[in-house]
Specification:
With 163 residues, the protein is of the alpha/beta class. It has helices at 16-28, 43-56, 88-97, 115-126, 138-142, 146-158, and strands at residues 6-10, 31-34, 74-82, 85-86, 103-110, 133-137. α1 (16-28) packs across α6 (146-158). The longest helix has 14 residues, at 43-56. The radius of gyration is 15 Å and the shape is globular. The protein starts with 5 loop residues before the first strand and ends in a 5-residue tail after the last helix.
């Protein structure tokens, strides 16, 4: 049986979610793509805008995706958690591509809490349950514990969908 074609797509404001996405893509042997906005989120004002958009469930303008998600068997979507919510750029991507997404899996990076709410929002937007989820806290990353979590997540994604 040929290996599934996997796309890891993510948004990262600070670089933390990017780091996890790159490690996951390398582990899975998949393609990787970053969600890009036309407008930056640097500094305190960018942080405030991020929180406001997340709380209001707004979707900012994002650049068109380079990869067609429908050409993959599995799309793994990564987001930072902002104010107990999916980040607004990931919300925009999911909304724009929900009809073209095959099987999905979700991962997030977060300061402490909010992963379950973010995953529920993502599931609601795409209209399907994820094959697996993985939440990695800043504490896990600081302790170097993300490797074990990513390995378990990758293993769950390698299992046939029927298991």
């Amino acid at each position: 049986m040929p290996a599934p074609k996997i796309l890891v797509i993510f948004y990262s404001r600070s670089g933390t979610t990017r780091r996890i996405a790159m490690a996951l893509s390398a582990t899975l042997g998949g393609s990787v793509e970053e969600i890009v906005e036309g407008r930056g989120r640097d500094g305190f004002l960018g942080y405030c805008r991020s929180i406001i958009e997340a709380r209001r469930k707004q979707s900012p303008n994002i650049m068109p995706a380079k990869n067609d998600p429908s050409s993959f068997d599995l799309v793994v979507i990564g987001t930072p958690v902002w104010a107990w919510s999916v980040s607004s750029p990931v919300r925009a991507y999911l909304t724009a591509n929900k009809g073209r997404l095959p099987a999905v899996a979700f991962f997030c990076t977060l300061g402490g809490k909010g992963s379950e709410t973010a995953f529920a929002q993502m599931q609601s937007i795409v209209g399907k349950s994820p094959r697996a989820t993985c939440a990695i806290t800043a504490r896990d990353i600081a302790a170097g514990a993300e490797g074990a979590q990513l390995a378990g997540f990758a293993e769950a994604l390698r299992m046939p969908a029927s298991q």
